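Task: fold both queries, return tokens.
Query 1:
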Amino acid sequence: MIRRDGHIHTPFCPHGSKDMFSSYIEQAIKQGFSTISFTEHAPLPRGFSDPVPDKDSGLALDLLPQYIEACNEMKQEYSQHITIYTGLEVDYIEGFEQETREFLDEWGPFIDDSILSLHFLQTTEGHYTCMDFSPESFEFLIKKCDTVEDVYKLYYLCLLRSIRWDLGPFKPKRLGHMTLVRKFQKLFPTNFDDSNYINLVLRSMKEHNMSLDVNAAGLVKQHCMEVYPPIEVLLRAKQLGIQCVYGSDSHQAKQIGIGKAELDNFI
């Protein structure tokens, strides 16, 4: 069986650790992975203002060539030990689809693998919140949307748009952490069933031939404590024939392989 970690960040991540590429790779080899994808946060689209305080959600565009070069160097250096893909985690941001497509058209030819993720929600025209940045940011969304259920609805409907929108031939083929909206579920518990939205998302993924990022990072988030998506959703995805790819979403080398053992039976 191919052991793959399809979602790993790097020292280029502006809000991550400065662990070296080699530290991530050697930890992956130690954990028994045969394939990994470095999926650094792509530069945010031209004209979009990052709403987080330190403006550090994505890689600076002028550093992108260095990132790609570093990944390619690691491919060569470790070619006898592990397969490495050069990748990006690309944000879908409502209203910036054209800019995102232009970015992908330019840089897609240099990328082996990519993930399409949703972090930013638009509550009023031109006003965005990074949903998963902090409990305070999520609470702000609740106040803007009226209820927790309304935030979930906004998230899933935007996720559906991201799947259906034509971002060109280099659009990412894997959907990132599809239940990220649950990151703060222990602080903001729900009293509703979001399975209808989840099923819509899964069916749309199947229709558009997208694979699923089985993201273990939620397991170690104190206010979440479950995989993105949880096991019952993962099983539905498998029933639909959706390819599932484990991702540690590591921002530190020591996070490589988190949750992998308990997920092996479901991927």
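Query 1 returned. Query 2:
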Amino acid sequence: MRSGEIIYQPGDNVEYCYFPLGPAMCSYFVELEDGTAVETILVGREGALGGIVSSGNLPAYARATVLHEGRFLRIPVRELEAIKRRTPVIDHLFARYADCMMAQVFQSIACNAVHTIEQRAAKWLSAAVDRIGRNDVTMTQEQLASMMGIGRSYASRVLQRFKRDGLVRTRRGGIEVLDRDGLRERACACNDQVTAHFQRVLADVYPQDA
């Protein structure tokens, strides 16, 4: 699937569960009444989209969009539900992953409320490179601003500071992280808290640094 491809729109019946492979990465966006779409959580090779805890084809609430192109596996939700019924271990695995997704949502709400734009941008870029396994993220400044629910000028100023300090380099349609450790130092601790929860609940599933 290519960057920008939409997997679900709000209200769509969720017929398949998708598993990103390798550098593939998606995000859930909540659309507000003024047309603004704000990113809630990222999903990469550590996770799945659709049919996580549902029974049957229920409507999607948020828009699921491919952020970084790559390959996906998918399985019909009805088949996944049959597997869960037959195999309690798999059912329990998905339940634990649903708990980790909620942890990301809770942390995102708290982060957006109290942390600076610079901290949030550094957090998001760090999370992206951790998931895709390389330093080059397919993302424009406009997309980054939309993801964070801020104006493009704010995103541009933050990226200029990061570039000045040797943390990132921008190109047409992409952002390359040059100094992962330095970027993490600028970020809030939200990624670390979510990663720690993944390790407690789903040990060895959360992606490690590539």
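Both queries returned. Flag for query 2: Strands lie at 6-8, 16-20, 25-31, 37-43, 63-68, 72-76, 136-137, 168-171, 174-177.
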